[in-house]
Amino acid sequence: MLNELEILSTLEMLQNEHLDVRTVTLGINLFDCVSDDLDRLKANIRNKIDKLAKNLVSVCDQVGDKYGIPVVNKRIAVSPMAAVGAPFSSAELVSVAHAMDAAAAEVGVDFIGGFSALVEKGIAHGDRALIEAIPQALTETQRVCASVNVASTRAGINMDAILLMGKIIRDAAALTADRDGLACAKLCVFANIPQDVPFMAGAYLGIGEADAVINMGVSGPGVVKKAIDRALSGTERPDLGRISEIIKRTAYKVTRVGEIIGREVADHLGIGFGIVDLSLAPTPNVGDSVGEIFQSMGLLGIGVPGTTAALAMLNDAVKKGGAFASSHVGGLSGAFIPVSEDLNISESVEKGLLTIEKLEAITSVCSVGLDMVAVPGDTTAETLAGIIADEMAIGVINKKTTAARLIPVPGKKAGDKAYFGGLLGQSVIMAVNNATGDNPFVRLGGRIPAPIHSLIN
Fold first, then answer.
1. Cis bond leading into 185, ω under 30°?
2. CB-based contacts of 132: which residues, under 8 Å, 6+ apart?
3. Strand 402-409 versus strand 369-376 pairing type
4. How far apart are CA 361 and CA 355, in angstroms?
5. Residue from 307, 337, 319 nearest 402 by CA
6. Position 206 in a domain
């Protein structure tokens, strides 16, 4: 059981350190909305979302006010639309995306995820139709987010799907060229995608989930940084083992906060509570950065030698603290390193401290992957596919989730700046090795088989 007095004392101690609940995400199962009539399907989707989510925003605000901690984002994740809308064409699925967008606007949430397909082992008719609809759907809607799972430790790596996604990313960028390829910021390509992740753009409601569920995303990179700073400013300087313990204890407190707020929101809505995702998710605001944590630990900036070791320690300590605080930790739960969404990380790119090769290397020990990475607009679909394939291999071999959210910015080159606005931030465009622009390797297609450690039954 959670002790509210303990939570309140924790909040008092952390109130000036950018602690917030980053998102409350309501998962909604749409399989009972299925119809072979397009208009009926769209009406069913809107009706169910309105029924379950109409009070989501007001309840989150009410609970946040009670504890004096804001719930920054209120979001919805739905069943993968490639399955829900399997009978329909790409053009028809674009109209479904419009219905999702309208429903999200009606209930006041900022994003709705689940325009998604799971194609790690093969691409069905509905999957292909949805994937081909992604560029137009994300261009013409404000709140819809898409994700495609192209690999898993159990199934291997679907190279046909990866090459297709390279082309889709290029198309999405071209359609939003006037906004620096913004549509790509709402699209994630995954290996081992979790079924309960509350963070966008990857959120969707998995097949094995309940009819409706509340999943929490708590954050607090500023809290972790301040805790490390306090320890290092004392008379006895802690070693790395002690710093790991400080991070673990801080993650414990943050997770406790998230769970009590999440359970109360769920109780008010009459919906089951799912998980707490305790990922350290930054924003472009000063003091709310994962990158600054590395500087607090003595590194010049993220990307310099020592970064991988520091991130491994940070990720492990966060997971240990969260697991001790709650029996319902899920989603991604670790440290996000999105380039444009973290002012400090973006500055490291600008200074030349962080390259895309080093970023790929450190994703082997973090929670996500190549996140919000702006690349030159002339990067070919084959090169994008090669980058994605490399990232998927890290996830498959290490039995972990990895993802790629790549944004080829039309008309811009390495060193230029891309501007996405709001929480999506801005970033210097990273240089990419585009020497093998046609990349025959990725055009071989097929499926890279699952690794031997997939045979665990």
1. no
2. 90, 168
3. parallel
4. 10
5. 337
6. no
| One-letter identity of residue 358 | K
* CATH code of the domain containing 147: 3.20.70.20
Nearest to 294 by CA among 210, 354, 234, 249: 354
**Per DSSP, what are the bridge partners of residue 404?**
189, 370
Token pair for 32:
């009972």
CB atoms near residue 48 (< 10 Å):
19
Q: How many whole angstroms separate alpha carbon 45 and alpha carbon 271?
A: 18
Nearest alpha-carbon partner for 354 in 337, 378, 367: 337
Q: Is 274 helix (H, G, I), strand (E, B) or coil?
A: strand
Contacts of 356 (CB under 8 A, 6+ apart): 370, 373, 375, 387, 430, 431, 432
Q: Going residue by residue through the chain (457 aa), what tens digit of pLDDT does each one get?
A: 445 655 554 655 555 556 778 889 999 999 999 999 999 999 999 999 999 999 999 999 999 888 878 888 999 999 999 999 999 999 999 999 999 999 999 999 999 999 999 999 999 999 999 999 999 999 999 999 999 999 999 999 999 999 999 999 999 999 999 999 999 999 999 999 999 999 988 899 998 899 999 999 887 788 888 888 888 887 788 899 999 998 998 888 888 888 888 999 999 999 999 999 888 877 766 567 888 999 999 999 999 999 999 999 999 999 998 888 888 888 888 788 888 888 888 899 999 999 999 999 999 998 788 999 999 999 999 999 999 999 999 999 999 999 999 999 999 999 999 998 877 888 899 999 876 667 889 989 999 999 988 787 7
Contact 63/12 with Cβ under 8 angstroms?
no
What domain range is 123 assigned to? 26-191
- Would residue 386 count as lying in a domain? no
Position 33 in a domain: yes
Buried b vs exposed e over 226-264: b needs ≥16 C-beta within 10 Å? Answer: bbbeebeeeeeeeeeeebbebbbbbbbbbbbbbbbbbbb
- The amino acid at residue 54 is K
The reply to whether the predicted model has a pTM over 0.90 is: yes
Neighbours of 446 (CB within 10 A): 10
Q: Which residues share a beta bridge with 277?
A: 217
- 229 assigned to some structural domain: no
Domains identified in the chain, total number: 1
